Amino acid sequence: MEGDLQKTFGENLRRYRLSKNLSQEDFAEVLGVHRTYMGGVERGERNLTLKSVERLAGRIGQDPLELLRDISK
User: Which pTM was predicted?
Assistant: First the structure.
């Protein structure tokens, strides 16, 4: 349970990145973050603030709530 939202967010960001055929490095540049930070986000290792979730979602034109939704269920 603990950390499920950050893992889900990371998985959804990864799906989005792959759908756009972007490397992790290129995607990090789009988001304005370092590539190692992006890797940590995608793996669910980063404990993001709600503000960070909103900012990252906004940079790719996505609804933050959709990026937090577990679509694997």
Answer: 0.90
